[in-house]
Amino acid sequence: MTVQKWEVFELLLHGIKEGNPFVSVELTAQFTYQDSEDNKTLCVDGFYDGDGIYKVRFMPDKTGVWTYCTHSNQKELDNITGQIECIDNDLNNHGMVRIKNTYHFCYEDGTIYYPFGTTCYAWIHQPTAIQKQTIETLKNTGFNKIRMCVFPKFYANNNEEPPMYPYQGQAPNQWDFKRFNPPFFQALENHIIQLGNMGIEVDLILFHPYDKGHWGFDSMGKEADLRYLSYIIARLSAFHNVWWSMANEYDYIKSKTLEDWNTYIEYVSKKDIYKHLLSIHNAERFFDNWHPNITHASIQIGTNSSKGEVSTGFGMYRMHRDIYHRAVIFDEVGYEGDLMQRWGCMSAKEIVDKYWKAICSGTYMSHGETYSSDDDIIWWAKGGQLKGEAWKRILFLKKIVEESHTEGLEPLDLWWILNGVGVHGQYYLFYFSDIPMNRWTFKLPAFKKPVIDMGTKFVVDIIDTWNMTIKRLPVEYVVDTSDRYYYQSKATPFIELKGRKNIALRIVKKELL
Amino acid sequence: MTVQKWEVFELLLHGIKEGNPFVSVELTAQFTYQDSEDNKTLCVDGFYDGDGIYKVRFMPDKTGVWTYCTHSNQKELDNITGQIECIDNDLNNHGMVRIKNTYHFCYEDGTIYYPFGTTCYAWIHQPTAIQKQTIETLKNTGFNKIRMCVFPKFYANNNEEPPMYPYQGQAPNQWDFKRFNPPFFQALENHIIQLGNMGIEVDLILFHPYDKGHWGFDSMGKEADLRYLSYIIARLSAFHNVWWSMANEYDYIKSKTLEDWNTYIEYVSKKDIYKHLLSIHNAERFFDNWHPNITHASIQIGTNSSKGEVSTGFGMYRMHRDIYHRAVIFDEVGYEGDLMQRWGCMSAKEIVDKYWKAICSGTYMSHGETYSSDDDIIWWAKGGQLKGEAWKRILFLKKIVEESHTEGLEPLDLWWILNGVGVHGQYYLFYFSDIPMNRWTFKLPAFKKPVIDMGTKFVVDIIDTWNMTIKRLPVEYVVDTSDRYYYQSKATPFIELKGRKNIALRIVKKELL
Description:
homodimer, about 525 residues, eight-stranded parallel sheet, seven-stranded mixed sheet, 9 helices
């Protein structure tokens, strides 16, 4: 039996159907790797998949031979042994996404990952035709992460019953929280696999408040919550492209306390032997994201950024990373759309402006869209088709970030420079938001004394963030002077920008091109 | 023996002079209060004050009889008993400043305290004439807090030797860290008392990095650090107007680790029976201000706010309180002055703008000034005289905040409104920074559905934050309509502002005037 690195090995076993195997049967497996340099044993939970079928899933992270042995309170599931050979990956699977340099992300194989995700909370709960359309849309756009919920969503613009439920019982609210519904989870897994094949990370929302007594999945009680988390981890943690989003708008879930959340976070972090990325998403109260088991901050923040109101500035984004000392993804900042709620009626320009601010603050952001329509299929809730204008500009920005070939765009100074990121001496990206820039003084931050040799040449691109144009200036900028805070060019002191708005500058050391 | 509530009772005892009493003599005292409703015993440390004199200080917080009993490893200091009668306060002493409603401050007697402080790091280490001048300046301005260091400061514009040192030994760096220098601490105490009589809280900086091997007070080692903290607490914690600022620019003190700081914070918090306010001030790395013993965040952040660069916005200030869930004082934001360092050459207008942004974000700020002069006496380091223009505007703002008669100006919405604070339905303060406002739509936030009855009248003042004028509009604004997010006035929908900058609006319910 061979399995590729970071793919799923699945051991299928047969056992009892009687009683309630979801709670009565215990099943774990030890996977052991041993060679001259390494020797490790990992223990994973198996799970009951219905119809007398039991499964154990395992994702090997190292090529070579792994042996396994099961343990169970059922004789027919106990002491099953075997071995798998983990071989090199020939698929487009770079492994799990992990934190890189505190504030950024990379795959396990070292490939840099810049999160540019979108949001379709309940797309897996829609009819098949809409699901297919969602997948098509994702294929044609290029987002590499999606926020989606396990549980169905009962909310404005989204209150149909889903085709399947995670529990056995009777809709809407007669559930046996001790009996999962395997077909539901099988379908979920197929979605995760499909998305994985498309290079999309699944930021899986484990709890959310959009239930409010309709199904009761937001208030199952602590015992059921933990059983659910255990089942989720047993089934899904072997999929490389899963992230745990403990909750959406955690503070709107009135049945759970901060202590509960801490318990659940610690539980998931402990149970998940692979240590997938783990976050929790706020509504009105920022979570205490310095919790040691939280890998990155998943922030919601709604602001008016450019409606003639007071500007939010770059500092707001930057503060999160610098206060939490964590990677930050602004997973909700309001949606491009036409809903009456203020969070659902942002203009595409506002959204694109926010994105550039986030990237030029050393953080990341997620997309969503809330254009209403006659069929009530809104991307943010159900998927389907994108109708807006922001997503193209966001993916234009994604391409720019990818082309930086950096391990993450880092702020270039303390809080004195809030609108520029890059790598000292090599690559700079500055953004000016809605400030009409006549000209920009060519000055490269010198804080902490990065070395830029006199005579170093830089090439400057003027980026129109809305019209998606990149214009390379014919003039090279040569560093020929420096002071306490900046490297500058006496020969070519300015970059003329003619009062344009929403302009960015990309400045790259010539010899790197 | 009577002592007024929140004043200092001092028990003076005589004992040995031989050896090193600073380390050999143990002395504590129990103070017990008992009446029909309450029964408590507090234990404080005594200290050696030189010349065979030992002191125990105690600040009673309750009127009535307190009995005391000392304990010591020295017979002549042991089992000394007595009683004091704590009587009502007839001085202008409101007790210690404590946290109020998470984000604000009040005195122990319930009087609201809005911190408007200034900074003179090393004023107590200057010659007497300059000290007197500093006190005169403070009397004539109205700041109610001062940041100042225990240890002298060795830094640009401040590298003279001080008149006294906290340790016995030989300047500059031959110190016996086991022998304190009582006259130094007696002088410090006199300054604290003097400031207390002026209504000024002392934000006492216990460690700082401006030493760099000159005296060695920044790198005494853990044992000496803890002995120092213990001595400080024994001597000073009975003074009501002391706050503990664990460090200035803690992350520039290379000899101490994050673990050390956590140890010191816990040590001080545990030793200080009164629980004075406790914070730690950052340079480049924000401290983990969610530490349970930290009472409020003391933040340094340097930004360009209005130099034609990108605006920092209000969000930057607001994020700190909303992320830490703590009261926040921006104790350093750059200084009004003319130094060549960017933090020391802010214009008064910039500083005033920052202050208004902080207040209108539900946070607080501190003042400082760095105008150079021939005699090298710069306010921020040495005290003396103020030369700038910001301080008057800051105290104008202080008066406005005091006149709000609120328990603290709170943000009025989630992050959708970042420039307004107040109390729903009663009092509003909006600030527009450097945005030229033609007119402002009269709209009072309705988030979380505060009740404002239709027909409620509001009086509007237009505040010119720089020219310090307040103009009351003759028109009353009557709330006559509301929607999901705002209360508005169809009859008088706008406030005309004629494109002016740095304007604030004060909107008060008429019947409260």
